[in-house]
Design goal:
- The structure is a single chain.
- The chain has about 350 residues and is of the alpha+beta class.
- The protein folds into three domains: about 1-40; about 45-135, no CATH class; about 210-340, Heat Shock Protein 90 (2-Layer Sandwich), CATH 3.30.565.10.
- About 55% of the residues lie in helices and about 15% in strands.
- The protein has helices spanning about 45-95, 110-175, 180, 185-200, 215-230, 245-265, 300-310, and strands spanning about 10, 15-25, 30-40, 230-235, 270-275, 280-285, 315-320, 330-335.
- The protein starts with 8 loop residues before the first strand and ends in a 6-residue tail after the last strand.
Length: about 350
């Protein structure tokens, strides 16, 4: 029979009878026979199957578009929700770009955006802490700057007043020359008041702003010679084109160095020179005073102030050359580039 070669044989005749043949095996694996089953249907089986296929096809034609529409609506809703969340994140990022790190990105309920929101907020907190630290450091730096300005301006002018007062006092004892000794009082007092008011108002506007460094130095040295009798020489190889901040730092260094000459060097003459070399800019202040042992440490805010100002220049350095009885040379070297 056909079932001898097939594990399951199916056949249908024209009367709608479905025959099923199942092979029967012995224990040794040999074929013992075949069991046949016949199923009679009162309908056309082939037509029924064809009808079922048509019904299922129509159902699929209706279901697939509905499913696609539902998926599109779900996607649109999901995209809109994600867009709103991304807009919130974008708003926070824009606030950070304006320097406001107190704004936080909204925490998303979507798994793929949760980590992003958390990471961005942690970054904002870190930036906020860095900004606070930077502001604190800027306050310390500004306080140090004001201290240097007070030392280099008002303190020196008050020191000049004290010298004038001592001279006036001595002349009053001798009776007759006090008026000449008091001539510079008003100028020094007005200058000290002007500098102090500028620092209090924190305008940082130099009275000599707009004047070249060469002219400012000539004015300074002429005043020092007039008040203290210290002869001076100013040598500028060629006018340097400097940025305003660099010009101010160099001027303050000369001012402090000359003040030290007046107070400590017992010098008769000072020489200031500025030049540009292949290695950079060089500023030198020399005197013919008593000098000192440069190998020893010399504490004092004046030296620290000059070092700080030199360090504010591009690759700036302060060098002190001195020997007892042979005067002192203060030298500042920096990377010189003409101002744009």
């Amino acid at each position: 029979v056909e079932a001898e070669h097939n594990a399951l044989a199916l056949a249908a005749d024209a009367d709608g009878v479905l025959a099923v043949g199942v092979p029967l095996a012995r224990l040794d694996g040999s074929l013992a026979g075949t069991a046949r089953f016949m199923i009679r249907a009162d309908f056309d089986l082939t037509a029924a199957l064809r009808w079922t296929a048509l019904v299922v096809g129509d159902w699929l034609l209706l279901t697939i578009p509905v499913a696609l529409l539902a998926a599109a609506i779900s996607t649109a809703v999901s995209v809109r929700a994600a867009r709103l969340e991304l807009n919130g994140i974008s708003t926070a990022v824009n606030a950070w770009a304006q320097g406001d790190f107190s704004v936080r990105a909204p925490l998303s309920r979507r798994g793929e955006l949760v980590e992003l929101s958390q990471a961005l907020n942690e970054m904002a907190e870190g930036l906020e802490e860095l900004v606070a630290l930077r502001e604190q450091r800027l306050l310390v730096r500004e306080r140090n700057r004001l201290a240097r300005e007070l030392h280099d301006t008002v303190r020196q002018q008050l020191f000049g007043l004290s010298l004038k007062a001592a001279s006036a006092q001595a002349n009053l004892r001798r009776q007759g020359t006090s008026a000449a000794a008091l001539d510079g009082f008003q100028e020094l007092i007005q200058s000290a008041q002007s500098e102090l008011q500028r620092l209090i108002d924190h305008t940082a506007i130099d009275p000599d702003e707009g004047i070249s460094l060469n002219d400012r130095l000539r004015k300074l040295l002429a005043r020092i010679e007039r008040q203290y009798g210290l002869r001076h020489e100013l040598e500028v190889a060629a006018p340097l084109s400097l940025e305003a901040e660099q010009s101010t730092e160099l001027y303050r260094i000369v001012q402090e160095a000359i003040s030290n000459v007046v107070r400590h060097a017992e010098a008769r003459q000072a020489r200031v020179s500025i030049k540009a070399t292949n290695a950079g800019g060089v500023l030198a202040i020399e005197d013919d005073g008593r000098g000192f042992d440069s190998g020893q440490r010399h504490a004092g805010f004046g030296l620290a102030s000059m070092r700080a100002r030199a360090a504010a220049l591009p690759r700036g350095q302060l060098r002190i050359h001195a020997r007892p009885g042979q005067g002192t040379r203060v030298e500042v070297v920096w990377q010189y580039r003409e101002a744009a």
